[in-house]
Amino acid sequence: MPRTLRQTFAMSRREIMNDPQFDWARNRPVRRRLAAGYVALTCAAAALFGLGVQTGSLWYIGGVILLLPVFVVLIGSINASVRGLTEIRTAELDEWQIARRDAMFRICWWPALIILGAAAYTGALTGLPAGLKAGFAFGAFFLVLCLPTAALAWTLPEEPEA
Amino acid sequence: MHNRIALLRAEKGVSRKELAEAVGVNFQTIGYLERGDYSPSLELALKIAAFFGVQVEVLFSLTPFQPLTVQLARSA
Question: Mean pLDDT per 10-residue run, chain B (76 residues)?
Fold first, then answer.
């Protein structure tokens, strides 16, 4: 029997992230598709945002707003596909999960810094059009926001059977 | 690191989930241990050994374990 919204809100983050209803996302091909989809969606939204700023047309910004629910669903699915490793409290993770999460944060630290640095450099020190700067900053922010989770989704091995 | 978790688990008829609950980890972690994808902490190794009632060196080794058939042939 499906859960009510109230029952779902009463569940802990760990229970939600380990919910069997997300098992469809917990295999490598699906996880990788979700991660690639996130990158593609970020690029598309950044392009729309940049065009919106450049042209001053609200249609493009409207497009970005329309993409927001897709973003929310996609980020939730990626999180559930890695069983919430990057968002559940450390006390609720076991040692393998902590080791994987910490390793991914270490790996993502420099790429994230480079992406944000490049966005800051483009925004502050180049004479590029405002739309390009805005699109780049938007894309960099959303890419870095979910980088460790997407990288985990891409790299985690296939889960064993229970 | 090599281990005999899968062997002992099969012998005892315990699922990964049951073993995981007994030692306080997720069942995926037991699977990754069995596959050799992860080396456990000393605490977890001791907990698993205690669950099976064996010494930790019976369960874990830095060198590959001999196949059961070889051991049986030797003891026969």
Answer: 93 95 94 93 96 94 86 81
ipTM attached to this prediction: 0.84
Which sign does the torsion angle of CA A75, A115, A154, B38 carry? Answer: negative
Residues of B in contact with A160 (CB under 8 A): 16, 27-28, 30-32, 34-35
- Cβ atoms B25, A95 nearer than 8 A: yes
- Taking the CA of residue A8 and the nearest CA in chain B, the distance in Å comes to 22
pTM score? 0.85
Question: Which residue in A has a C-alpha nearest to residue B39's C-alpha?
Answer: A96
State whether B16 and A161 contact (CB < 8 Å).
yes
Q: How far apart are CA A64 and CA A48, in angstroms?
A: 6
Contact between A101 and A11 (Cβ < 8 Å): no
Interchain contact B14–A (C-beta under 8 A): no
Beta partners for residue B2, in sequence order: B61
